[in-house]
Amino acid sequence: MNEERLLKIIEDMTEVIKNLNDCKEILKLNEEDNTTIFIEFGLKQIFVDFFITVENLTSIILKELKEFKIGIDMKESLSILKNKYIIDEKLYLFLNQARLLRNRISHRYKEPSREELLEFIDMNMDNFYEVLAVAKGCINIEK
């Protein structure tokens, strides 16, 4: 496994989770105005960034498992990780929901409201950290 790439994924994921928390707290404490609209936009982009790091992590794990294929979609990738016991059912469901939410943000159809995104992040903060733990666990497998 490419340890340097894995360490970068862990670093990025750690930063993204911190930024999600920071933006979430600011938006929860402040009414919507001309300033918070930019923070909300930032929160959406940070959420997309989180999922990009998940995609990178998934790719590196699938390559290690010799399950990577060109053109494999994220839904199938997550199923493989679940079937190989890399992630459990709870994390699989979280990542699938996050994938759908990321699609709504990225493709701007039925874009989630501020409240919907904040609620999802709030209710799933432990899952964000669990994904980070999976990434860190890959380093332990290495050594």
From TrEMBL:
Keywords: Hydrolase, Nuclease, Toxin-antitoxin system. InterPro entries: HepT-like, HepT-like_sf. Pfam families: HepT-like. Belongs to the HepT RNase toxin family. This is DUF86 domain-containing protein. It comes from Clostridium argentinense CDC 2741.
